[in-house]
Specification:
Shape: globular
Mean pLDDT: 79
Strand order of the largest sheet: 1-2
Number of strands: 6
Structural class: mainly alpha
Number of domains: 3
Length: 368
Amino acid sequence: MSDQLAESVEDDSSVTMLDVLQVENQLEEDAYAVLGASDDQNCTYSKGYIRQALYACKTCCLDKIRAAVCLACSFHCHEGHELVELYTKRHFRCDCGNTKFDGKQCNLEKLKSAINTENKYNQNFDGIYCTCARPYPDPEGDEDDMLQCIICEDWYHLKHLECDNNAPADNAYDEMICAGCMRKHNFLWKYATKHAAYEYVILLRVVLKKADVKSDVSEKNEDINISELPKGCQMPKFSCADTKGSCFWIEGWRTALCTCDECKSLYNAKDIAFLLDPKDSVQAYEEAGKMNKQESQYEKGMKALASMGHVQKLTAIEEYNNMKERLMQYLQKFAENKKVVREEDIKEFFSEMESKKRPKVTVPTYCR
């Protein structure tokens, strides 16, 4: 094989290998974002009420009993069970082993209260999401992106957010509050003219302008009467009577919330004082998780490639392409028979490949 041809093969195949490593890296980034701040060996119960990744066990909790366990308990107490992944929930204490589990004890933390009184549960713990109350993924519905409301922490299909197809692009906003929560906490619209995503700011200003020209605008449904705002209060003085739908907020919007005593009392009364906590956001949680990240498979793979000689790289590429072809053939059988690929199937594939390995004569990398 000429050097030019060898370089061509190396370049073409290396791109494929790098693509695999990069996909693996992205998957690891996503996993660390959600799980990096979690401990897979120790139950989080002793940490109290915290934001954490949670799992609802449908094997242990029957008859619509809502409960959730931490990452470590999902491994050490509920392995092989039917688990519903809940992503993260704020201010939640691990339920594993309490009275919701019908006598089943936690293997990691024996001394636990009978019930966690401050835990809050919604339909997600039943595996149901959105105002349409459907599972995700929905076997009977079309694929649709889902967004999490930062207040109720339920997940919503984009088409059910009551935003008339005016939702901003993913990179144009930081957090979303669903239409139901915006109705409950109507005063938050006052901050939206400056702190919502651009498209929403334009629409909201039109609504507010129409409201201002009405002589009979009633404020009796307001969460707080704008004519009675205390001195020093920084809450914007707008009427929110005609605003509706979900709201998409830009980064840093929480810092604009007024922190006068009256407003703090309002947040506490409505049980949304967590909006003032800079560590409450999912973004802050994910950043903390990424800080715990160790060397990724991508980084290990790049180091391994960099340490190889020219011929060794070609050999590795040949082996990789061989493995990829065999794996595709193996998975094709599952696709043809419409069977689900299990973890055991993948392990079996690599076990068979390992057993078929034979000593291989390679081109010497040096001359005597």
